[in-house]
Structure formats: structure tokens, C-alpha cells
Design brief:
With 515 residues, the chain is of the alpha/beta class. Helices cover 43% and strands 15% of the residues. The protein binds 5'-O-[(L-methionyl)-sulphamoyl]adenosine. 5'-O-[(L-methionyl)-sulphamoyl]adenosine binds next to strand 2, helix 1, helix 7 and strand 13.
């Protein structure tokens, strides 16, 4: 089965932050899981590179906007590379193939008479060089420039968004365009049913850094309109509605709640206008705060992705972000809690279990004697269910329950005390090794390097599941080679309080990247 997954394409003018990393890590975990299931996966990431703000920032830095975008986009690529993200493509809205497809599309919409010329009246902040909606203003003033915006009229082109409102509601209600979790579906249906969608102004006269409107080159195309099409141009669509790439439609589009509205109005309307299938599912996750507050430079509470990578290592960063709170809800993180979780779940949990069992097994283990472990089977069943439902936090809980189960089992059986019953000792170690082996597969999508380290220590190669074989419990009979145990160094070095800059030995930060 195909599995096409996307993250939003992030604004290139921002430094890649933890919010971007959160969505992208989640998308990577799901991509790796689907690859494990032998699905044909395509994972799209990218950057949104046009618009006034980028134009202005480039000017501030005295750079040509393309050069500015090139440098900024590289930062995202490098971070994804450092976080072991396995995106199949990195689409940039300044890519030639994107620009030419978008122009073709706008021409098609114009020829279909779904775009018309009209007059836009709006509140314009000269300081921001941007139209403001009433909700963006505080006491009627621009919060940044503390000035009342002017009422401005401008000729522009409109897309007939209002035509598609009924159809979008219908598609969402029939689950042909799924929105999850359910609260977000209700939220989308709420505003779609309550407010009348206005036609959308899709052209900008004042913005020079953009894609020219094909039928009137004195305008550029509104960034949101063109940005959406990156989900299509990223899989090499050339703008021909009759030739849609095989990966279409997306099986899953991940994003946070800030962009739910545009993804349930403009985005489906554009696709419906072009007779292109809608995505199967949008999954909308929450926002996180730091110590109860919005992450902000002024508050000085910003945690950067590299702060975590330097402190905990890549795999632990991936784990810690997803193990904080349920994916889909808002949540709070703090450096202290991340550190606690690192010590409890990774150092004392997974790392300690593997170290204890392998130390004993290196000396005493001779052959396998089990193969039908109920605990492992139960864990796989719940694992698959939660993964299917994109409950990544719950999946991790389930896996960590198996780790606690093994800890308790060891405490009960005390294998280190068995001196003269090799049969019994071997049986206990077999059970534990089999569980660790299955644990290593379960954590593979989340912590691929750790998973690999465990396989190496077990002396076994995990070749993946056979084609069409369901992802599930692997009994020892399937392990042709058996285990050749060679305990290596501890999986997770212990972190001590107040030692803020402890560097993980194995973390290599790559500073350059070529895609
Ligand atoms: N360029 C548009 C998206 C166009 S898609 C056709 C955009 N870019 S953005 O850089 O602002 O990225 C928004 C996304 O960043 C969110 O939807 C989410 O995926 C991620 N996050 C940004 N801040 C976040 C948090 N504080 N918490 C969780 N995720 C957040 O919008």
C-alpha cells in the first residue's frame, strides 16, 4: 500500500524551532513505521519562501531574496538531517518546477472563470505592509506599530472560495476528507457552518517577491494559494490536472492547530475547483508551551532543537518530545521535566534493562527455549492499534509497559542468583532476550539508532518484516542466526543535574547538507 505523508512547508524566514521539529519528528516516526509495514512511503517536507516578510528580511540583511532563502532553507535541511529525518523530498516554493506548475494552475482556474477581477477593501497597516483582519488588531490598532490601519481599496483578483463551502462541509461530514482528532473536526465544521466563506483575494500588487500571476504579471500570487500546491509539486506534479502522480492523494497531512482553518477552507476549495482528489486525512496536533508560557525570545525561554540534541542526543530528543503529552493535545514542556524523563525512561528504563540482561546473557546464555510470549503479543497488538490511530504518546507508553514488565520479571526471578540450574537460567534469559529483541523493533520508528545498537549487542540483524507479512511478534524460530551477544556501551549516558552542557558522545552535528 502507498503511504503519502506531509508536514507543513515551513516559513523559511524563521529559524527552525522546536515546533517545527515536533511535527517533523512525528511525521518521520509514522513514515518509518509504514516502511516497517512494507508500505510504499513518500514523505514530503519543505519550505515556504515567498512573501513580503521574506522580502523585507532579505533587505535588512542586504541579501538578494533568493540567496537569503537558499541559506535559510539549508538550515532546515541540515536540522532534518541531524535529527535523522527520512523525508523523500524537500520542496521549496522557489523551485522552478513549483513555480511553473503553480502558474499553469492559476491559468486553468482563470480560464474556468473561478478567478475574477474585483476590488479589495481592507484595513492596511503601512508599517507591516499588510492587510489586517479585525481579530489581529488590539483596540483597533496594529499591535506592532500601535497605529490604526488605513482603510484601503485595491484592484485585485479573487478566487471563488464561497462556491465550495457546501461541498467541503459535505466531504468532512462523510469522512471523505477526514480531520482528526474529533475535536478538530468539530472545530472545522463549526466555523464552516457558522461563517460564510468570503471569496479570497489571491493577488498581491505590493509584494514583489512572489510568483507572477500568469494572466496579469503586475501582480504576484498570494503565498498561501501557491504554498498549498507544494504538496503536489513535491511529488513532481507539473500542473496538468489529467496527469496526477500516483502518490496522490496524501494519506496523512500533519500540522498544528494554527493552520487548521486554511487547510479546511482554501486548500480543499482549490482542489475541488481543479477536480483533484482531497487528502484522505488531516491530523492536527496541539501547541506546546515552555513552563506554561509561550516560547518567546523576550521571555528567554526558547529551547532550540540543537539544545536538546547536544544535551540528550538525537534519539533521546526524538523520544522525549513525543513522550511528553498526547499527540493532538496542547502540552507543556520544561528542561527539568525532559531531564527527569530522560533519566527515568531512557537511562533507568530501556538502557538499564538492556545492560542488565545482556551482562548476564553474555556469560550464561546458550540457546533459545521459548517462543510464544503472551506479553510481547499483547504489546504488539496495542502498538499497532495506537500507531494506526496516530496516538504516538500512547504507543510509547505501551512499549514502556513492556519494559516495566521485564524489570518486574527480573526482580521476581532474580536470574543473577541462579548458580546451579542452567536450564532455568537459560529459560529466563531467553524470555528476556526475546522481549528485548521485540522492543528494539518497536522503538525503531522512534529511535532508529538505539534500535540498531540493540540489534548489534544482541548479535542479530533485523532484516525487516517479509513482504506482506503483518507486523507482529517475532518468535525465536524466525531468528535463524540466534543471538551472539556482545554487550556494548550503555545506550544512554546518565545526565547529572546542573551539568548543562554534557555532550552525548555519539552526537555528530552536521553543519552542511546537500540534498
Ligand atoms: N508556511 C505555512 C505552512 C504552509 S503549508 C502549505 C506555515 N509555516 S510555519 O513555519 O509557521 O509552520 C507552522 C507549523 O509549525 C505548525 O502547523 C506546526 O506544524 C509547527 N509549529 C510551530 N509552532 C509550534 C508549537 N509551538 N507547537 C507545536 N507545533 C508548532 O504556517
Amino acid at each position: 500500500m502507498k503511504f503519502y505523508i506531509t508536514t507543513p512547508i515551513y516559513y523559511v524566514n524563521d529559524e527552525p524551532h522546536l515546533g517545527h521539529a515536533y511535527t517533523t519528528i512525528a511525521a518521520d516516526v509514522l513514515s518509518r513505521y509504514h516502511r516497517l509495514k512494507n508500505d510504499d512511503v513518500f514523505f514530503l517536507a519543505g519550505t515556504d519562501e515567498h512573501g513580503l516578510k521574506i522580502e523585507q528580511k532579505a533587505q535588512e540583511e542586504e541579501k538578494n531574496p533568493q540567496k537569503f532563502c537558499d541559506e535559510k532553507a539549508t538550515k532546515f535541511k541540515v536540522l532534518w538531517n541531524n535529527l535523522n529525518i527520512t523525508n523523500n523530498t524537500f520542496i521549496r516554493t522557489t523551485d522552478l518546477k513549483h513555480k511553473s506548475a503553480v502558474q499553469k494552475i492559476l491559468q486553468i482556474l482563470f480560464d474556468k472563470k473561478l478567478i475574477y477581477k474585483g476590488e479589495y477593501e481592507g484595513l492596511y497597516c503601512v508599517g507591516c505592509e499588510e492587510y489586517k483582519t479585525k481579530t489581529q488588531l488590539i483596540a483597533g490598532k496594529c499591535p506592532l506599530h500601535k497605529k490604526m490601519p488605513e482603510l484601503v481599496k485595491e484592484d485585485c483578483y479573487f478566487f471563488q472560495l464561497s462556491n465550495f463551502q457546501k461541498k467541503i462541509i459535505e466531504k468532512i461530514q462523510k469522512n471523505e476528507f477526514k480531520i482528526e482528532p474529533i475535536e478538530r473536526k468539530n472545530e472545522a465544521l463549526g466555523f464552516l457552518k457558522k461563517e460564510k466563506l468570503e471569496d479570497l483575494s489571491i493577488s498581491r500588487k505590493k509584494v514583489k517577491w512572489g510568483i507572477p500571476l500568469p494572466f496579469d504579471k503586475s501582480y504576484t500570487i498570494y503565498v498561501w494559494v501557491e504554498a498549498f500546491f507544494s504538496y503536489l509539486t513535491g511529488i513532481d506534479w507539473q500542473g496538468d490536472c489529467k496527469k496526477i502522480p500516483n502518490f496522490w492523494p496524501p494519506d496523512l497531512q500533519l500540522m498544528a492547530k494554527d493552520i487548521l482553518r486554511v487547510h479546511t477552507t482554501i486548500w480543499p476549495a482549490l482542489l475541488l475547483a481543479l477536480d483533484i482528489l482531497l487528502p484522505n486525512k488531516l491530523f492536527v496536533h496541539g501547541f506546546f508551551t515552555i513552563n506554561g508560557q509561550k516560547m518567546s525570545k523576550t521571555l528567554g525561554n526558547v529551547i532550540l532543537p540543537y539544545d536538546l540534541i547536544n544535551k540528550f542526543g538525537v534519539d533521546a530528543t526524538r523520544y522525549l518530545l513525543l513522550a511528553q503529552f498526547p499527540f493532538g493535545q496542547d502540552g507543556d514542556i520544561s528542561m527539568e521535566r525532559l531531564e527527569e524523563k530522560y533519566n527515568s525512561d531512557l537511562v533507568n528504563g530501556l538502557g538499564n534493562l538492556v545492560a542488565r540482561v545482556l551482562t548476564l546473557a553474555e556469560r550464561n546464555f546458550t540457546y533459545f527455549s521459548n517462543g510464544n510470549d503472551i506479553e510481547i503479543k499483547k504489546t504488539w497488538k496495542e502498538y499497532k492499534k495506537t500507531m494506526k490511530n496516530i496516538q504516538l504518546f500512547e504507543t510509547l507508553k505501551i512499549v514502556w509497559n513492556l519494559i516495566s514488565f521485564c524489570d518486574k520479571y527480573m526482580e521476581k526471578e532474580k536470574p543473577w542468583e541462579i548458580k546451579d540450574n542452567p536450564e532455568r537460567l537459560n529459560k529466563i534469559l531467553s524470555n528476556l532476550l526475546e522481549r528485548i529483541y521485540n522492543l528494539a523493533i518497536m522503538i525503531l520508528p522512534f529511535m532508529p539508532e538505539t534500535s540498531e545498537k540493540i540489534f548489534t549487542q544482541l548479535g542479530i540483524k533485523f532484516e525487516g518484516f517479509k513482504k506482506n507479512e503483518q507486523i507482529e511478534f517475532i518468535p525465536h524460530q524466525n531468528l535463524v542466526q540466534g543471538f551472539k551477544i556482545k554487550k556494548g556501551e550503555n545506550l544512554f549516558p546518565r545526565k547529572h543535574k546542573n551539568k548543562k552542557t554534557l555532550k552525548q558522545k555519539n552526537t555528530k552535528i552536521i553543519l552542511d547538507f546537500k540534498f
